[in-house]
């Protein structure tokens, strides 16, 4: 009995609820931009204490739409070097130039210093990413820095459904928050994304962009360079049902993380990325840094081969400035990003993880650490 890297949790009752919803959607023929999308938007906004939510086809679309409403065409957008391809990809799609910044190694997020180092008069926006679900306590200082320069702060909250800092939910610290419902994320709709914001203007613009830039749902005049970024009603129903489990999933994931924190504290040189005071992560990922010089591939291979414990993908194993596609945007070395990408591992955290599974991971990591890093 091994431990998988990930598990997508829809219990029998949720599967039945989705099946009923799909049957209703097919019977009515309201397949897109209908009542389930509205339900999903309202529930998601409420869950995150936001005034407005706009559902879109993916997390990448959510980011691109926000950046298009800001108008980053021909200007620079600061993104951390430690993030998924899509954060910087969305900047390119929106016509902007990604500027890759270093991160704080204790939170894996941008810091005021690393952002300040790359700001220029051409900076149009800063995108903060909550890696692994952890919101950096520097978020207030980052917001203040952006405000002082009149630059919008955008959150790529693709990892952070239900996370908070100082009681404040992810997605509410800047102009807008962009979430993803890709299958591996803490809440999924199959495919999908969500924008949350306090700005009614941004909400209205986002609704225009997601539906081919049409001025109105029933009209045929196109006022923006939008695209087909709508979420289907089928996906909205899946997401609405899954979102109801968010609190329970996060509780389970946090229990697992607390046990990992306690167990890993005793392992020399293995440094967990732990929550600073006031931070409440959803533990999309549990990140730990291997001691320098330990071969990550061998560590993972040994865990799988000898203990049947599979680690999930890193967040991330390569900083963006080392990704071939971003070679044109490579600048000075980004030492913290390079180091945390090279040394990190992600222990499995499942939304329905059992105590036995958690124990198994702890025993396996302890044994392999003793052998390869002790
Ligand atoms: C998953 C993810 C995205 C993109 O989401 P999609 O729904 O796959 O488009 C963007 N940013 C980060 C950090 C992600 O992890």
From TrEMBL:
<dbReference type="GO" id="GO:0008483">
    <property type="term" value="F:transaminase activity"/>
</dbReference>
<keyword id="KW-0663">Pyridoxal phosphate</keyword>
<dbReference type="InterPro" id="IPR015424">
    <property type="entry name" value="PyrdxlP-dep_Trfase"/>
</dbReference>
<dbReference type="InterPro" id="IPR015422">
    <property type="entry name" value="PyrdxlP-dep_Trfase_small"/>
</dbReference>
<keyword id="KW-0032">Aminotransferase</keyword>
<comment type="similarity">
    <text>Belongs to the DegT/DnrJ/EryC1 family. L-glutamine:2-deoxy-scyllo-inosose/scyllo-inosose aminotransferase subfamily.</text>
</comment>
<keyword id="KW-0808">Transferase</keyword>
<dbReference type="Pfam" id="PF01041">
    <property type="entry name" value="DegT_DnrJ_EryC1"/>
</dbReference>
<protein>
    <submittedName>
        <fullName>DegT/DnrJ/EryC1/StrS family aminotransferase</fullName>
    </submittedName>
</protein>
<dbReference type="InterPro" id="IPR015421">
    <property type="entry name" value="PyrdxlP-dep_Trfase_major"/>
</dbReference>
<dbReference type="InterPro" id="IPR000653">
    <property type="entry name" value="DegT/StrS_aminotransferase"/>
</dbReference>
């Amino acid at each position: 009995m091994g431990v998988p890297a990930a598990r997508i949790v829809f219990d029998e009752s949720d599967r039945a609820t989705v099946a009923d919803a799909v049957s209703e959607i097919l019977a009515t023929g309201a397949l897109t931009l209908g009542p389930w999308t509205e339900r999903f938007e309202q529930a998601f906004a409420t869950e995150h204490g936001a005034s407005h939510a706009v559902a879109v086809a993916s997390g990448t679309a959510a980011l691109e739409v926000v950046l298009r409403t800001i108008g980053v065409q021909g200007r620079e957008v600061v993104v951390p070097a430690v993030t998924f391809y899509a954060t910087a990809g969305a900047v390119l799609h929106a016509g902007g130039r990604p500027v890759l910044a270093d991160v704080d190694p204790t939170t894996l997020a941008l810091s005021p210093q690393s952002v300040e180092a790359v700001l220029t008069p051409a900076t149009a926006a800063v995108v903060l990413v909550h890696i692994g679900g952890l919101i950096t306590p520097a978020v207030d200082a980052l917001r203040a820095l952006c405000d002082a320069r009149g630059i919008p702060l955008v959150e790529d909250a693709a990892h952070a459904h239900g996370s908070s800092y100082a009681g404040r939910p992810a997605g509410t610290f800047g102009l807008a928050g962009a979430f993803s419902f890709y299958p591996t994320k803490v809440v999924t709709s199959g495919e999908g994304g969500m924008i949350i914001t306090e700005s009614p203007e941004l909400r209205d613009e986002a609704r225009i962009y997601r539906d081919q830039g049409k001025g109105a749902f029933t009209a045929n005049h196109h006022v923006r360079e939008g695209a087909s970024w709508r979420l289907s009603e089928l996906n909205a129903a899946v997401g609405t049902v899954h979102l109801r489990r968010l609190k329970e999933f996060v509780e389970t994931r946090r229990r697992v993380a607390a046990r990992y924190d306690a167990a890993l504290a005793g392992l020399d040189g293995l440094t967990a990325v732990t929550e600073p005071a006031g931070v409440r992560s959803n533990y999309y990922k549990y990140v730990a840094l291997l001691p320098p010089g330990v071969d990550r591939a061998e560590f993972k291979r040994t865990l799988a081969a000898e203990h049947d414990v599979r680690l999930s993908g890193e967040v991330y194993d390569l900083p963006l400035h080392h990704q071939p596609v971003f070679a044109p945007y490579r600048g000075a070395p980004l030492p913290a990003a390079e180091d945390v990408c090279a040394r990190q591992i992600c222990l499995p955290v499942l939304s329905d993880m059992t105590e036995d599974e958690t124990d198994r991971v702890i025993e396996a990591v302890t044994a392999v650490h003793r052998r390869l890093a002790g």
